[in-house]
Amino acid sequence: MKKELNPILKKYSKMGIIAVSVIIVALIGVFGISAMKKNMDTSSAIANVTTDAANAADLRIAVISMEKIQTKANVLENLHKQRADYETKLKNKLEKEQKSIEKEKADIEKSQDILSQEALQRRVIDYQRRVNEFQRHLSESAQSIETSYQDALQTIQKKHLDPVIEGIIAKKKLSLVIDGRMARIGENVKNLDITDEVVDALNKKVSSVKMASPKGL
C-alpha cells in the first residue's frame, strides 16, 4: 500500500527523444559472397575472384550528414514536434491520474482505524489493482507513441528521403554516398557534401507526415 508512484512518472519524464537513425548505403549495388566449401583452403576459395577493382578516377563520391538532415528537414522537425506533443499530453494525463491515486491512498490510510479488516483489505486490493492499471497504461501509451513515431519515420524515409537521394545520385551520376560521420573531409574538397541539396529537395517534396494517433491519446 506504500508503493511509490512518483518514480514511475519521473522515469517517463526523463525519457529523451530517441535519436533517428537512417543509414545511407552505396547505390552501385551490393554483392553477396557465396558460402565457401567446407575445408577449402583460401587460395582455392578465391580462385575465381577477378583482379578487377574500382578505379579512383572512375568514382564519383558524395557525403551526407544525417544529423543535419534530421534537424533541418521540415518534415522531420514536424515529426519530432508531433511526438513531443503526444508525450506532453501523456505526461499531463498521467499526472492527473497519479493525483487521484495518491488521494485514494491517503483516504485508505485515514480509514484504516474505521473500516473492518475485511473492508480495508478490499480497498487495499482495489487500490493495488488501480496502481497496476496505471503502470500498464503508462507502459503501453509510451510504447504506442514510439511505435507511431517509428512508423511515420519509415514512411518519410521510404516514400520521400530515399527517392530524393536516389534522384540526386542519378542526376550527379554518383557511384557512392556515405554518411558524413564516417568521413574526414579535407579543406580543399569541393562538391563533396550534398546535404544541403538533399534538405532543400526534401523540403520541396514534403513538409509533414502525420503520426498515427497513439493508443489511449
Would you give an account of this structure?
With 217 residues, this protein is mostly helical. The chain has one domain (6-31, 56-205). Helix content is 57%, strand content 4%. It is built from six helices and two strands, in the order H-H-E-H-H-H-E-H. The chain has helices at 6-13, 42-45, 66-72, 74-111, 117-172, 195-205, and strands spanning 61-64, 176-179. It has a two-stranded parallel sheet with strand order 1-2. Helix 3 packs parallel to helix 6, helix 4 (74-111) packs antiparallel against helix 5 (117-172) and helix 5 packs across helix 6 (195-205). The relative contact order is 0.21. The model is unreliable at 1-37 (pLDDT under 50).
Entry keywords:
217 residues; mainly alpha; 6 helices; elongated; disordered N terminus
